[in-house]
Design a protein that fits this description.
By secondary structure, the chain is an alpha/beta fold. Helix content is about 45%, strand content about 10%.
């Protein structure tokens, strides 16, 4: 009887409860993580901070301000170790934080991450008044174009009509394209999961393979019929791969 109790206690305490921090991209919303949050919040703390991508001060300090924000956020939450899950620009931020604080990140998940190459708004972005162009760029994010709803396109368009917000977005988009991480990735020794949509046109799968070659301890999982935000387009497959990685 006693040995059975000990076995049960051992199995119970083996569940990993390291908090998850989910980091959205430049135009990502907190709702993008809804199905991930609901899937994993039963056994661990899941946090979805809203990144200050419209902060006017970002225009001078670029990505550093976002790293500082994440440092302060994690400190306020009084977290010892975390798992960072970052999509697009959020993945870039996760890499920078991990390099600065390697002892605080247990595992890292990069989802269509910038840091090596990104075909985003940064290059031809001045066409902010062109509604059809904005619609095209929003649709470019998805394999399933029905995700580029009128509501989403209108929201992005309206955001870009505010000069201060448009300026901050342009600065961050260009920083994500120019601040290349290639020479630093070998210093990230922790386990890394690369989750990528096969049809991602913003960070194509060649970028995922490049990350895979440069990171010492990386696992690559590709999701078919999926673009730049797999947690939105293929949430079941996304969660399955993430669960295996977290429990491994």
């Amino acid at each position: 009887m006693n040995s059975q109790i000990l076995v049960l206690e051992k199995e119970t305490t083996s569940i990993d409860t390291t908090p998850l921090i989910l980091l959205h991209g430049l135009f990502g919303s907190l709702s993008n993580w809804q199905k991930v949050e609901s899937e994993f919040s039963a056994h661990r703390k899941v946090l979805v901070p809203e990144l200050p991508v419209y902060d006017r001060s970002l225009r001078s300090s670029k990505l550093d301000k976002l790293v500082t924000f994440l440092e302060q956020y994690i400190e306020r939450q009084d977290l010892d170790k975390v798992v960072l899950v970052g999509n697009s620009l959020g993945g870039h931020l996760a890499q920078l934080y991990t390099l600065r604080h390697p002892g605080k990140v247990k595992k890292l998940v990069l989802v269509g991450s910038s840091g090596l190459y990104e075909n985003s708004f940064g290059g031809t972005f001045p066409r902010v008044k062109d509604f059809s162009y904005i619609r095209e760029r929003v649709a470019y994010t998805f394999f399933k174009k029905e995700h580029a709803t009128d509501v989403l396109v209108q929201k992005v368009f309206q955001t870009l009509q505010i000069p201060a917000k448009a300026s901050s977005i342009i600065t961050l988009a260009r920083a994500a394209q120019t601040e290349n991480m290639a020479e630093y990735l070998s210093h990230i020794k922790i386990p890394v999961l690369l989750l990528w949509g096969v049809q991602d046109e913003i960070t194509p799968i060649e970028v995922a393979h490049h990350f895979h070659r440069l990171l010492p301890n990386a696992t690559l999982r590709l999701i078919n019929e999926c673009g730049h935000v797999p947690m939105v387009e293929q949430p079941e497959q996304f969660n399955q791969y993430l669960r295996v990685f977290l429990e491994g």
